[in-house]
Amino acid sequence: MRLELRDVWHVYAPGNGFELPALRGVSLTVEDGEVLGVVGGTGSGKSTLVQHMNLLLAPTSGAVFVDGVDAGTLRKSELRRRVGLVFQFPEQGLFAPTVEEDVSYAPRQLGLAGDEVRGRVRGALESLDAAHLARRAPYTLSGGEKRRVAIAGVLAMSPEVLVLDEPTAGLDPVSRERLLELVTGLRSAGTSVVLVSHDLDEVAEVADRVCVLEEGRVRSIGDPAEVFYADPEVAPATVRVVAALGNICPGLGRPVRFGTTLQALRGLLEARG
Amino acid sequence: MSHSLGQFYPVESPLHALDPRAKILATALLVLGLFLVDSVPGLVVVAAALATLVAVGRVPLRTFLRLLRPVAFLAALTALFQVLFSREGAVLVEWGVLQVHEGGLWLGFLLAVRILLLVSAAGLLTATTAPVALADGIEDLLSPLKKVQFPAHEVAMMMTIALRFIPTLQEEGRKIMRAQTARGADFDDGGLLRRGRAMIPVLVPLTVGAFRRADELAEAMESRGYRGGEGRTRYRELRFGFRDALALVLVALVLVAGVLV
Known about the structure:
- The complex is a heterodimer of chains A (273) and B (261).
- Chain A is α/β, with parallel strands linked by helices and 273 residues long.
- Chain A has eleven helices and ten strands.
- Chain A has two domains: 3-235, P-loop containing nucleotide triphosphate hydrolases (Rossmann fold), CATH 3.40.50; 236-273, no CATH class.
- In chain A, strands 6-7-8-3-9-10 form a six-stranded mixed beta sheet, with helices on both faces.
- Chain B has a domain at 1-129 and 236-261.
- Chain B has ten helices and two strands; from the N terminus they run ααααββαααααα.
- A two-stranded antiparallel sheet of chain B has the order 1-2.
- In chain B, helix 6 (131-142) packs antiparallel against helix 7.
- The longest helix of chain B has 31 residues, at 152-182.
- Chains A and B meet through helix 2, strand 6 and helix 4 of A and helix 7 and helix 9 of B.
């Protein structure tokens, strides 16, 4: 599925003293089966942006298109099934007495039959390595487990685009790694992913394209190497190292991921003996 | 950001600059005095005075009126009860068992207007007084009761925290609603029962969150040395000046005018 935002503006509290334009003409696409990383400082409009992707927030002006169709004309429930949105700290929305009941909430809201619901719940929990937690009470889980269960609660709708708003915030490195594996796994299964993050390294690790937001505008968007090397200020540490060494050791190329950067540096050092 | 009942409206104005004690006393005076005002000209005088104060306090009128919306329902309901069940004065309309009396109509109108004015006065107080100042003012006014072991500081602190967290909880509720909407929740369709059930996925996390927040706040306060009111000094010392006294006198005069006309 291809998602497109065309010149989207969003103004909070229009017309009173606290008027705040959070998005100022954002245009971007999420291509079928890609991982789009969205980065930007706090207050740059990331969270406002993602809530437009399933029209939880309606644009003040501009429009959202799903496969070329104006999303405003689609049924809301349909749109929310196709574009799954996971908020920041989604574990705060867990409410059912057991994990499986909580994860089954969305499929039940969709009106699916019992077998289908159970299948969806199992599938979602399995893809998050959480099948063994099915009968536990959410409040007995660790932070990382809760986060995975909450994400499973959205994945159970089998969305065509999964939007994750800072999914790794506050998680330990192992849980973080697992979530990034989920993202790459979803991409291989054909699901598009929008990954909003403050962590440039993890965006560099998994994103096919990167969008940098600044004060509600798209500062740059495109291939991670293009975006990051054009703008080392907003690039991950590895890119800044390579950019800084570029003058004295040409031939490093423009690696973005941690692994490839390390390889490039090692290659260079070995070549020099 | 939406402005709701009991929320501070942070601008600079002569009303914002007044001593919170003067504003609390003036509000209390107005609220009590309103029950002595029982003529249309009297109500007009008080309403005009309040409207002037809203303007002086630089709270946009539209924002202020929006805050009255939830209370308007309560006022209307009260009025309706008076109109339907009061049996004073001449009968105006008779329709089966229902009778509308002249006295009921008047009483309903009077009560509804009083409720609206009362809430406006209280709303103006909280809109123009920062929560901390409000707490300091309440504490000060209650402090004579400390002599009889009344925990004036603690009561004031609890009131401030409660007030302070209304908008926070509202925002959190909205956030959780949006998150559950993303999971297919529907809060607008169906009958009362179904809508009530639809709120469970919001109310459970909201309650859990409120308790967690309360715990965290208590710990944060303690770790910053909070130990109740004893021996505590203030960052802002309250000063009751000429302008504060003048404000009180003016409010009293408005009330006298309201009662007499």
